[in-house]
Specification:
The complex is a heterodimer of chains A (625) and B (229). In chain A, helix 7 runs parallel beside helix 25 and helix 23 packs antiparallel against helix 25. Chain A contains 26 helices and 21 strands. With 625 residues, chain A is α+β, with helices and mostly antiparallel strands. Chain A has a 4-stranded antiparallel β-sheet. Chain A has a 4-stranded antiparallel β-sheet with strand order 2-7-4-5. With 229 residues, chain B is α/β, with parallel strands linked by helices. Chain B has a single domain, classed as Nucleotidyltransferase, domain 5 (2-Layer Sandwich). Chain B has a 5-stranded mixed β-sheet with strand order 3-2-1-4-5, with helices on both faces. In chain B, helix 4 crosses helix 5 and helix 6 packs parallel to helix 8. The termini of chain B are far apart. The chains are: A alpha+beta (625), B alpha/beta (229). Strand 1 of chain A pairs antiparallel with strand 3 of chain B, so a sheet runs across the interface.
């Protein structure tokens, strides 16, 4: 008898592996072979599982049941929880070094151990396992994204009472139907009841689920016959939780499986459903709520307190895994609302209604790419007509200075370079602006190039948008044909190389902030600058970096995949910075330490910076630098 | 032959089998003060034809190794012993070893030699160990002329001695308390594996309570037995 094949323990381990990634995707004989080499071990609640003092880990740990908390060695970092099926420490094993995390059992926990040598063998033999361990960009981004969500789920868990049991949180009224129900009937019911999901039930047991998202992919796009039973379209045997489990379990489950609805059972029978909306309900309503509170704020104090909710909201949004592009635009749109309200309140006090002016958002605000610690960048363009220009300017300056101050109180620091509407130099008439722009373009001295980078990303925020549109058009006219000016801009854009080393992965600073890299100068700004140059040369008037890359890139015959990769990399860096700012509001906003990222994040960061490098190479070639 | 103490006829072994037996005899007993992490535990469960100590027969042995507080899940012992007549219908329903399987099981001598080679003389752990020890030793005595020689440790005594607050008497109580789901309940190997998981928990707790070797564990288990009387 071949004990290893027959043994019920191996069979149980095998079937366990088959439920979890990456093993689920491996060949049956691969997991069977793997299962026979596993060992099972136990960690009592609160005992240490693994840390740096253990040296090179002796095995890959696979949580069989229970929960393990993983904490970075750096103090203040938020812990991450690993549940059944999750594996660690892949990075340390691959790098053949001690782990940098500290793993501790937070429940009585059983772990399967795959001895190091077996781990290496599996890595050699299974392409799926290898792919799981070292991945290419898109899936790296995806996984890293999930890790990010996991991390923030922790913070969110602390803030919301996710300890509540699901029987309290769940919705008891559930839309259900039988497997044989025609899909058309089911969809009608979903629409009538305005719910995002329907459960397919047989003898009170949940046999399937169909959600709005599934409908688009499986029904609408495939133009299915509406008389076909729903069973053909449903997700069979969906993940369920028991009503005595916590809302936190549900949050983790949703994050882990990337789903938004979880049916809840009691003694195996359907008892209710929990949706992402139920758990993060606060989130959506608070977006609405904060937006509204900002718009109706009656004075600076009220505006200030309404604006203070933005940071907390963003934190939850990060946890929920809102995509990078949406998230940065969302931040910008909320910041816009704060600025709009500040302008409206001050305009009333300064009675400037009869003046034709437009409040301009510049720099990252103009590009709708603000993060949390963004300085103000704004200006005013006005049209004095035949009236006294200077008198109007004085009134506008007084008004703008007070808006700048209100914004400062609401958490937007004053611009260190003085690029604010309250500054006489940046409160100009349309004609003055055109002269100024023209001067920069004709005399591209370093300061002019620096200003161009900020001002040429202008966007109308409030007032007469026509003035801003005319400015934009003028910028395009002046620059698109002026190769010499663009060449100067390109030279600036390639000045800072991404901090990638030949020998080491990252070239970190050892001067003021040892061990860190500047995410902005060495990464984000390269994308922004390159996109601006591309846009100006292609007469694209958009200001948002992603839009610029899409429109100008297409005109320049960059492939769609390449554009998509650039945009993804850009937002990856943005989110990384946002996350850093969120976790460490006290540290320099653009400085991150690659060593504190896990190997996965390090690889994605590297890939993103490599893409920044390709942009620089392209600029160098195009402008013969 | 004066060293043959049992009065019955001496078992007949082939040369190879006798050699296997001698190899086992030559193994030295691990030291009673061997630390818990260094020790190799054999966690065992048996299936029998019934609960009668005198009349019933040993049908099956399942065993798992616990070493350095881990279970090697690929290294297990599992055998069904060949029976001249199958056990009764009611009995078969408990362990699921069918009549044919019993008749076609492994002959006792090679199966038990295999067991000794697997167990060596390492401490044997079982839940209600006295019951398993009785049947295993009787079979060993009968077919090989020896008993197991190992130190036996009863988890049914050790667990309540370590976890005073847990009201558990049956294996199922303890499994339920610690949330252990047996891979296969009422098969010797499945139960041995579940018992081994209880041993992991017990060892972890023993370390916390400062019990560092087998002797200390046995003392603690015996204490409770005395207290309960």
């Amino acid at each position: 008898m071949n004990a290893a094949e027959q043994n019920v323990l191996v069979a149980a381990a095998d079937s366990f592996l088959r439920q979890h990634l990456p093993f689920r995707k491996m060949l049956a004989e691969e997991t069977r072979g793997l299962a026979a080499r596993l060992r099972l071990t136990y960690f009592a609640k609160d005992s240490k599982v693994l840390d740096a003092t253990d040296g090179l880990p002796s095995a890959l740990f696979i949580v069989q049941r229970g929960r393990i908390e993983s904490r970075r060695a750096a103090p203040g970092d938020s812990p991450r929880t690993l549940g059944a099926g999750e594996v660690f420490p892949i990075n340390a094993l691959l790098a053949r070094r001690a782990t940098r995390n500290c793993y501790r059992a937070i429940e009585d926990t059983f772990c399967y151990l795959l001895p190091f040598q077996e781990f290496l063998r599996c890595f050699e033999e299974s392409s799926e396992f290898r792919r799981f361990c070292t991945n290419y960009l898109s899936s790296l981004l995806d996984q890293s994204e999930r890790e990010r969500q996991g991390e923030f789920a922790q913070i969110v868990a602390l803030q919301q009472t996710l300890n509540a049991l699901l029987r309290e949180t769940m919705t008891r009224e559930v839309l259900t139907c039988l497997p044989g129900t025609p899909i058309g009937t089911a969809l009608r019911q979903m629409t009538q009841r305005k719910v995002g999901s329907i459960l397919i039930v047989e003898d009170r047991r949940v046999v399937g689920i169909l959600t709005e998202r599934d409908v688009i992919a499986r029904v609408t796009l495939s133009q299915a016959d509406l008389n076909v039973p729903i069973a053909q379209f449903m997700t069979a045997k969906p993940v369920t939780l028991r009503s005595d489990q916590s809302a936190y379990d549900a949050a983790l489950t949703m994050t882990r499986h990337g789903i938004r609805h979880v049916p809840i059972t009691e003694e195996g029978n359907l008892a209710g459903i929990v949706s992402e909306r139920d758990l993060f309900g606060l989130q959506r309503s608070s977006l609405h709520h904060i937006g509204r509170a900002i718009s109706v704020a009656a004075d600076t104090g009220a505006l200030k307190s309404a604006a203070s909710g933005i940071g907390r909201l963003i934190e939850r949004m990060l946890a929920q895994g809102v995509a990078g592009e949406q998230l940065t635009r969302l931040i910008s749109s909320l910041n816009d609302r704060v600025a709009l309200r500040a302008i409206a309140l001050q305009a009333e006090l300064h009675s400037i209604h009869e003046i034709e002016f437009c409040w301009l958002a510049l720099g990252s605000e103009g590009r709708q790419e603000q993060t949390l610690a963004t300085d103000q960048d704004n200006a005013i363009v006005f049209d004095a007509g035949e009236k006294d220009v200077e008198a109007q300017r004085e009134r506008l300056l007084a008004f703008a200075a007070s808006v700048n101050d209100v914004l400062r109180q609401c958490g937007f620091p004053l611009c260190k370079g003085g690029i604010m509407a309250g500054n006489r130099a940046w409160c100009l008439t349309l004609r003055e602006w055109l002269a100024q722009f023209s001067d920069w373009v004709r005399n591209p001295v370093p300061e002019a190039l620096l200003n161009a980078a900020i001002f040429f990303d202008l966007r109308a925020l409030d007032g007469n948008h026509r003035l801003a549109t005319e400015l934009r058009a003028a910028v395009t006219e002046m620059t698109s044909s002026r190769t010499l000016f663009l060449r100067h801009l390109a030279a600036t854009a390639v000045q800072n190389a991404p901090p990638l080393g030949l020998l080491r992965d990252f070239v970190t600073d050892d001067s003021e902030y040892p061990g860190t890299i500047d995410l902005k100068a060495g990464g984000i700004r390269i994308f922004v600058d390159a996109a601006r140059i591309m846009a100006l040369s292609q007469r694209v008037t958009e200001t948002c970096t992603a839009d610029r890359l899409r429109l100008a890139g297409r005109a320049m015959r960059v492939t769609d995949q390449e554009i998509a990769a650039l945009i993804e990399a850009f937002y990856y860096l943005q989110i990384l910075r946002l996350k850093h700012q969120q976790l460490h509001p006290d540290r320099p906003a653009n400085r991150i330490a690659p060593a504190q990222l896990n190997a996965l994040e390090q690889r994605v960061l590297k890939e993103s910076l490599r893409l920044a490098k390709t942009l620089q190479t392209r600029l160098s070639l195009d402008y013969q630098l | 032959m004066s060293w043959w103490p049992f009065g019955t006829s001496r078992p007949l072994l082939t040369d190879t089998q006798a050699q296997q037996l001698r190899r086992w005899q030559a193994i030295t007993l691990p030291h009673a003060k061997l630390g818990l992490d260094g020790a190799r535990f054999i966690v065992l469960d048996t299936e029998t034809s019934g609960l009668d100590h005198r009349k019933d027969r040993l049908l099956s042995i399942g065993a798992v190794v616990v070493q350095s507080s881990t279970i090697e899940i690929g290294e297990v012992f599992d055998c069904v012993l060949r029976q001249a007549t199958p056990s009764g219908q009611d009995n078969i329903l408990i362990h699921g070893i069918g009549g044919t399987q019993q008749l076609e099981g492994e002959p006792s001598v090679p199966a038990l030699l295999r067991f000794l080679a697997f167990a060596k003389k390492d401490p044997i752990v079982a839940f209600h160990a006295g019951f398993d020890q009785h049947f295993v030793d009787r079979a060993l005595k009968r077919h090989l002329g020896y008993t197991s020689a190992s130190t036996w440790l009863d988890l049914a005594l050790l667990l309540p001695a370590l976890f005073r607050e847990v009201p558990g008497t049956h294996l199922d109580d303890w499994l339920a308390h610690f949330g252990i789901i047996p891979a296969q309940r009422h098969s010797a190997l499945g139960d041995a594996a579940a018992t081994a998981q209880l041993l992991l928990i017990a060892l972890s707790e023993a370390r916390v309570q400062g019990l560092l070797n087998l002797r200390a564990l046995r003392k603690r288990a015996a204490q409770l037995r005395w207290l309960q009387r």
